[in-house]
Design brief:
single chain, about 325 residues, alpha+beta, 4-stranded antiparallel beta sheet, 8 helices, about 30% strand
Length: about 325
Amino acid sequence: MATNHPRDGARDGLRLESATVMAAARHQWPGILTRLGIADRHLRRQHGPCPGCGGRDRFRFDDRDGRGTWICSGGGADPLAGDGLALVRHVFGCGFAEALGLVAGVLGITGASPCPPPATRPVAPPEPPASRLPSVMRQWSESLPLTGTCPASRYLAGRGLALERWPDDLHCHPALPYWADWDGKPFVLCRTPALLGLVRDKTGEIVGLHRTYLADRAGAISKARLVHPDTGECLPARKLASVTPGATTGAAIRLAAPDNGRLGLAEGIETALACWQVSGIPTWAGVSAHGMESVRLPDDVAGVWIFGDHDTS
């Protein structure tokens, strides 16, 4: 899938020429991506977990022609792919302009800056990006706890999950906008019910929001099938919003309190709930395979059970 970028994007009230930013970023993508919080293990030109949607070996970063290119089979029959800017958007769930601003910040480019020569030494650290916590909390405030009959509850029930009490950190949004980009301009592709999961760090602070977009098909609730109307690209039904780049590293969706120091870890909300239901061990969702490996646990957790989902994608 070829990735076409529009001419420019907005950052801090200025106009950023995308050609300027992309020219400066060429052959610099591994360094840029690691500065934004994407672990180096994902950038070694070999198959492994996707930093945006998990799995085991669905992702490969190949950096063709220094453009930061990659491919992820998480989109099913229509793989997700693109350049370094597209990877920033995929991992952080942001639009074109925000992603362009993040990359420009790493490179030290402002709206009026000429294209700098290729970096020969580490660039100066960027100013901290604006927090997305207000946006995360707004979406959370628009949602409601699971009721057992709401679309999110019905989706989980369709996966064979039945709990006497649903976790407090799971909500159902009645009609969450799905934002996509068309020629660099954000637009709402659709509004669907969504399963929301708060992502918390070791101290319990909210650092992100996991969103699963849902659809009703003949009375059965399943993940939404989303296709870009212009490119035909298969879009992910799951998105992770991080309050700042890299903030969700080591974080988890806390579905229950540890039981006498016992805690399970699994990839994904559905797998974690199923493991809790079958084993009786409270289980947290690490969002992705990489996230599960790096979860930082509270000090009172003495025993940890790791539950795999045998994902071969």
